[in-house]
Amino acid sequence: MELILAAQESNDDEEMKYRIFNVGHHKPVKLTEFIRILEKHMGQLAQIENHPFQPGDMPITYADTEKLKAFIDYVPDTELEDGLGATVEWFQKLTKEVMQ
């Protein structure tokens, strides 16, 4: 919500139009940790199959939010646990509504 408000304040800025921004946490998280958090919020265990790295796989990724900070002075600060929890809750609610 904070991001939307910050973006609206900059809405009249011509430099902002049609820009694409990374929105996410600026520090990397291990995939196993990401999965553990999803499992917790979904209440079920993932069926994991480990495979060797494939060509093109990235050993580490994270959101570079520098452009977001430069343009609208916003730095995402939602912890992964909270963000994934809210996303799972939203998705489950949406799925329930669609299936009715």
Question: What's the topology here?
Answer:
Elements: H1 2-9, H2 31-42, H3 66-72, H4 80-99
Helix pairs in contact: 2-4
Features:
mainly alpha, UDP-galactose 4-epimerase, domain 1, 47% helix
CATH topology: the name is UDP-galactose 4-epimerase, domain 1
Radius of gyration: 17 Å
Mean model confidence by pLDDT: 85
Structural class: mainly alpha
Number of domains: 1
Element pattern in H and E: HHHH
Total count of helical runs of at least 4 residues: 4
| % residues in beta strands | under 5%
| CATH domain class | Alpha Beta
**Fraction of helical residues:** 40-55%
How far do the termini sit from each other? 28 Å
Shape: extended
- Total strand segments: 0
Q: Which stretches are poorly predicted, pLDDT < 50 over at least 5 residues?
A: none
